[in-house]
Amino acid sequence: MHLLNLGILAHVDAGKTSLTERLLHTAGVIDEIGSVDAGSTTTDTLALERQRGITIKSAVVSFPLDRVTVNLIDTPGHPDFIAEVERVLGVLDGAVLAVSAVEGVQAQTRVLMRTLRRLRIPTLIFVNKIDRRGARGDAVLRRMARRLAVPLVPMGRAAGLGTRAARFVPGLGPAALEALADHDDDLLAAYLDGGVPADRLRAALAAQTRRALVHPVYFGSAITGAGVPELTAGIERLLPTADGDPDGSLSATVFKVERGPAGEKVAYARIFSGTLRIRDRIPFGDGSEADALAGAGGQGQAVRARGAEGRGRGDRGRGEHRARDGQGSDGPTAGRSTGDRERRPAADGRPQGPAAVAGVRGQAAESHAECRAVGRVTGLSVFDGGSDVRRDSAGAGRIVKVRGLGGIRIGDALGRPRQAYGHHFAPPTLESVVVPGAGTDRRSLHLALTQLAEQDPLIGVRHDDLRRETSVSLYGEVQKEVIQATLADEYGLDVTFRETTTLCIERLVGTGHAVEFNKKDDNPFLATVGLRAEPAPPGSGVRFRLEVELGSMPYAFFKAVEDTVREALGQGLHGWPVPDCTVTMTHSGYSPRQSHAHQGFDKSMSSTGYDFRGLTPLVLTEALRRAGTLVHEPLHRFRLDAPADTLGALLPVLARLGAVPETTAARGAAVGLEGTVPAARVHELEQRLPGLTRGEGELETAFDHHAPVTRGTVPERPRTDHHPLNRKEYLLNVTRRVGD
């Protein structure tokens, strides 16, 4: 039987979880339909979900159709939990997007649809709640066409709107034919000639839906069941099933991690190829590690692996190396020694010069291969008939629960890495300090928040040892309330939160370069590090590159520099993260392992990872200072509908809040405004709107982009590091000395 991994997505309160219940009931998996209000739904298993009536964590449940077994993933609808949705998208074969026939297209609906289109995930649309008072059919369809801006294929029409007798009347009309003909010239020719056979139309519909070119639209009610049989038929006939070779090499992606009853980690993964078996020993780790380091040494070689620091150390002579004239290290003069490194065997007989470089290349590749963790699968479950069932093996296409991999993280690849785990939605734009209550131990709080971050990495736990404070990144106030309740219910920890603040970022203005040499000037570290920092496009992330030979020093020292660079970029010149830049290592050097006569290894004479971890923040900070950074604040795009006669009162308030209306459209006695507003002012705008519009205003906002702070004082974020901006203070904190 074929497999289909299906996501159910929607704006909050569009009836997504109720639709999941109805699909399970229609398939015969459950005898009685659960109620969100009563807290009896199948997929809302957390006590907090049942209390609040909202989905907080994604949940998987399976049901059979005639020829397909569907693994249905119910996702949160509230914008505060969009990160949970993001992790699911990479494992889907298809999706159903639920839209309320009463509220229509909401801000979150547009965000979800844009992302589904960008990822080319085949998607059906279900207009729910046609039995509710105020339900609209054609009006919602027109609004979807306008606001979602995607090709829609109405699969029928809704009748008896707003009554318990509301029903779905199937039938493909002219609008469906026109939408399909836009992507099929032969179909268009047949249409113009006067007729398209029904089987040809159905074949075109299935083909274009599977390619995510069009989106079939169904109407119905999850409560009464209207339209659900037709939707179920569409899921089976129109969406593509999972592919992948069960006999191929294992490749799977982890999209969820939870803790079992004994505190053990349980990973949810989609298998894309191969077969996973109980007791298998499998490698796992970040998918970005697919970029091997073997053969490194050319210009701009990227370094990505998570190597063990202790690997790759040798007794080679001290050398300080740089790329000359902006070139790589393969040229005749590139990487020339400036220390006592010579082309002669070391004391232990190891080769120097080109032979040593080749050896380190191989060593780096070996370290890279071994840096991914390896674990044994001790438990394996698949989803079947509404529950998870223990199995000895599972093949390509399956979603599985895996036990035994203690260090597993969300986004990790099992077996062969498939691709780097990407981000599809906006990052959190809020931050708040967690304040422990009376009787709450800080160590216990630290452990609890660390475990929560395993399940949701984007909450971004940030520990400030100097002030003994812990902060978390947030999408909104509801998420903050959920974290507070989770800490109380699951960990017995009483906490409060300080006022939520806006989370800014820093972007580089230009390019900056800095270098410090071993045993020169006031450098107290036994290391040479040169770094160049350059701006990168928004969303591209941090990239670390080499312009020195990978063989110029032990691989572990390169790894120490890269790890420290990535950590240090969490705090730019103003204390905010620097998320998008390229950092290139231009100089390297170290002191070899040395000792006094008849004595062991002397750290005071020989470089260690400590030297590179200590020096790198100073060099990077100076490079950032020379490049310059600008603080950027998050901006939301807003859509505001209000009575036209309130526009005069609205515009001055919008201006005072820093909002910039970009378009104004009159709609009879109403007016619609669209533009941008600083995220920090969204809450105030929401509070002011009812009074300004006699309670008739409607506001939608969603993150749009980051923009330079141009009004008022540039916001500063308290630093949690040893303050590398102040060299004397930094050295006192790190080395207890201020240099020679």
Automatic annotation (TrEMBL):
One of its GO terms (molecular function) is GTPase activity. It comes from the Bacteria. Residues 290-363, 704-726 are annotated as: Disordered. SUPFAM superfamilies: EF-G C-terminal domain-like, P-loop containing nucleoside triphosphate hydrolases, Ribosomal protein S5 domain 2-like, Translation proteins. Residues 306-327, 338-347, 714-726 have a biased composition (Basic and acidic residues). Residues 1-243 form the Tr-type G domain. InterPro entries: EFG_II, EFG_III/V, EFG_V-like, G_TR_CS, P-loop_NTPase, Ribosomal_Su5_D2-typ_SF, Ribsml_uS5_D2-typ_fold_subgr, Small_GTP-bd. Pfam families: EFG_C (PF00679), EFG_III (PF14492), EFG_IV (PF03764), GTP_EFTU (PF00009). This is Tr-type G domain-containing protein. It comes from Streptomyces filipinensis. The lineage of its organism: Bacteria, Bacillati, Actinomycetota, Actinomycetes, Kitasatosporales.
